[in-house]
Amino acid sequence: MAALGVTHLVKRFAGGVVGVDDVTLTVGEGAFTALVGPSGCGKTTILRLVAGLEEPTSGEVRIGGRDVTWLPPRDRDVAMVFQNYALYPHLTVRDNIAFPLRVRRTAPAEIVRRVRQAAELLEIDALFERKPAQLSGGQRQRVALARAIVREPALFLFDEPLSNLDAQVRAQTRAELVALHRRLGATMLYVTHDQVEAMTMAQTVAVMASGRVLQEGAPMSLYRDPASLAVAKFIGSPSINTVAGRSTGARFEGALSCVLHAAEASGAVLAVRPEHLVLGAAADASPATVTLVEPLGPESLVRMRLASGEELVARCAGEAPWHIGDHVRVGVAEGRGLCYRASDGSRLL
Amino acid sequence: MTRVHRRVAMATAVLWAVATIALSWRVLKGIDEAARSREALYRAHASQGHAPSPAFPPSIEASALASVQQEERPLIVHDPDGVELVTAPVKDADDWEIIGAVALYGRWRECALRVAAPAIAVLVVALVLLGSASAARWSRPGITALGGVVAAGAAAALTLSQLQAAAAALAPRLVVPPTLARLALPSPSLAFAALALVLLAAAGALAVSAVHWHAEAAGRPARVRETLAAWGFIAPSLAHLLVFTIAPVGFLVWISVHDWDLLASDRPFVGLAHFREIGADPSFWRALRNGLVYALYVPATMVAALAAALVLDQPLRGIKVLRVVVFLPYVASTVAIALVWQWLLHRDFGLLNAALAAVHLPRVDWLGNPATALPALMLVSAWGQLGYMMVVYLAGLQAIPASLLEAARLDGADAWQRFRLVVWPMLRPVSTYLLLTGIIWSFHGFTLVYVMTEGGPAHATDVLVYRIYQTAWEFRRFDVAAAMSVVLCALLLALTALQWRVVKGEPADA
Ligand SMILES: Nc1ncnc2c1ncn2[C@@H]1O[C@H](COP(=O)(O)OP(=O)(O)OP(=O)(O)O)[C@@H](O)[C@H]1O
Ligand SMILES: [Mg+2]
To answer: Ligand 1 atom 30: the closest Cα is on which residue?
Structure first.
């Protein structure tokens, strides 16, 4: 177990594409950090830089306090689980798991013991004699995990390991991975483009966009206090509602309006989570027409359109008493409106 | 299995059996007409012979002689008792002038029955098979088709053995003077009979399985259409294969078991005599041994090609040009390569010897020395094949997912371990393919030997294909050459079968 520290990491590819743009990030010893962001934002590149599969243009990578920036992957003591699992197709499950120990010339008895241990932990000892081609996606995933943990590395890297699984197996594996993390107490850096995955699994989430880390923090703090409009939009499902308008300092004026305590007056965007929209007779309420009601069981999503054309979605508990075409009044729950500058998306309040 | 299908299948079986019987009948008649018992042999006017056989009975002499002289071909006449006789002209030793006639009693009915018996058995078996074919059994196409094929094959084999037995029973009794040996009768064509029977059996099996397939696919028009379309697409190349590959091979086998002289008019069946001859011929074995040694260039070239591929797989500047350069010899004509290398290896003007001389080493007569000629040829072959093998290896390397090698790097494997534990096993199908096809091709290697050494010096580069060529076109022993070709063919077939097995045994990539 060791902490990971990445400082001012830059990766510029041949041809001028900047994959990672001055990223600084820490994963504490034994922590589980998720790196999340839209496709092409540089998540995989960071992982590869940490693993040593890619050389940085500048910056530094430290694992357990040791500068490993220029060390080859085999000397970094990291294990990585690839999106396509990267199992050796010509080897059996047993030999796949034993591979990292074999190449490090571990004693045979020790290999047998640790392979068995890893396989029992992941409940794949029944598959030992099979080749990867004879496994299901979920089983391959477990074998890849076993191959990673058998070495007891200082750091685990995951690159969207669940994206090839179907929804049910994914939900199950998610829970298992969290349990595994707790049992091993290992440091893990987990890349995904699925914010639900990041929020549910990680202790710390770092949101990325175009090569930069926008914000880093505990899942709920990111949800409650997104530092920028981009983070606010990326985290949460359904997405946060946004309405363009302007801030007068004391108030936000637009298709929706609410009280602010902002210092400056400027063009602004109001962002409100679906559960913070209040339907009915609230102060500052604006008229809207219900366009769709989606009952989800314990709660319902009500989609509506404001007179100015903006679409909103509200979450309300239980069954919604509205129907398509109903006219409602919609407002913002007190103190729940998030306001960002229209110019650069930075937080106004 | 509908009633219609059942009827069609039944009709097919009946037709097939009837055709088999008819064919046997016809073939046996041919045999029997040529091979008569001595007791029944009459002759007339065969003045040159020392024939022990009696002269024609007066009652039939006139008609027999007249018919033979006029028609110059076998005719059927009847003796006074109404028994059927075949008269045939007897020609002189040059196969030119008719010098007499023979008359022979036909015994073919009796023999034909022996041949027809298995055919009738086939008919019965086929009928029983079809009659008992319940819907459930027909739902297992593999077994039924196999049954049909086995039955057909057994019938053909039985029929053939009976034919041979009949011929053997008659042949030794045909002790005739030399002049009478050249009966101008259709010779008993066992080969023809064999071919026809095999074709019949195949057609029968095909018909049964076609009916079967139709029964199975009934009610699934899309599948019928698809299958027909597929066969439609295959048909042209299948026809090509049959006419230009299968048929010549069949002809080759036929030649190899006959005394096949280009000039002689008759080409008797000699069985395995030619094979025994080549088995006893040391030059054949030497050619085989040379071929095996020569084939060693394949694994050697593979090693070099793999090394080249590993180097050229790097993303370096100008690497594409280098790849093309290495590949170039493969597209060059073998004759051109042979001529260039003949010059390079020349004792007096060759580049290689010039280089040796420059460092004060003795000149070597590369192609003129029995010790160096074969290695020199191997070198040239290796040079010519290197590019091809490298390109195949390059494709193999690029088919290995990069993530596998990255996983191995993370797992702690150094460069050599990555090669030994990941790259090499992943390339195994490619290597097997190259090795086996390379060896197969090395046994075909003719041009280099023909142009550069002509099998010399002192047979040092005499390989099997060259030996076959010489035997056929220089010694004019086409039958022996055919026998060698059959041996070579069997060898290559065995290698190909091995290749199939190995390639099939490969695990599918995950
Ligand atoms: N080898 C490379 N050469 C040039 N550009 C690259 C290379 N690898 C990645 N990039 C670029 O760097 C950027 C970041 O890529 P990266 O693979 O890290 O994205 P990602 O966040 O993992 O996306 P995804 O969620 O789709 O996997 C992309 O714009 C990509 O086009
Ligand atoms: Mg990625």
So the answer is: A40
Residue A100 contacts B where some CB pair is shorter than 8 Å: yes
Overall pTM surpassing 0.95 (yes/no): no
Q: Which of A53, A99, A131 sits opposite B406 (nearest CB)?
A: A53
Same domain, A196 and A245: no
Question: For residue B400, what are its two tokens?
Answer: 């290995």
Average pLDDT (B290-302) is: 92
User: Is it the case that residue A265 has pLDDT exceeding 80?
Assistant: no
Cα–Cα dist B448/B461, whole Å: 10
Q: What is the 3-state secondary structure (H, E, C) of A49-111?
A: HHHCCCCCCEEEEEECCEECCCCCHHHCCEEEECCCCCCCCCCCHHHHHHHHHHHCCCCHHHH
User: Minimal Cα distance from B407: which residue of A?
Assistant: A86
Superfamily of domain B297-458: MetI-like (1.10.3720.10)
A22 and A49 share one domain: yes
Q: Which residues of A touch B421 (CB under 8 A)?
A: 88, 99, 102-103
pLDDT digits (tens, 9 = 90+) for A179-231: 989 988 899 999 998 888 999 999 999 999 999 999 999 999 999 999 999 99
Q: Test B410 with A132 for CB contact under 8 angstroms.
A: no
Contact B21, B116 (CB under 8 A): yes
The verdict on a CB contact (< 8 Å) between B406 and A133 is: no
Last residue of a domain, one of A176, A191, A224: A224
Ligand 1 close to Cβ of residue A76 (< 6 A): no
Q: pLDDT at residue A9 above 80?
A: yes
**Does some domain include residue A230?**
no
Calculate mean pLDDT across residues B381-398: 90
Find, in chain A, the residue whose alpha carbon is nearest to that of B425.
Answer: A90
Q: What pLDDT, on a 0 to 100 scale, did the predictor assign at position A24?
A: 94
Is 70 exceeded by the pLDDT of residue B75?
Answer: no
From the list B280, B451, B319, the residue with the least C-alpha distance to B380 is B451
Average pLDDT of chain B, as a whole number: 73
What is the CA A176 to chain-centroid distance, rounded? Answer: 17
Domain coverage including residue A309:
240-341
Distance CA A27, CA A202 (A): 11
CA of A233 to the centre of ligand 2 (A): 20
8 Å CB contact between A267 and A343:
yes
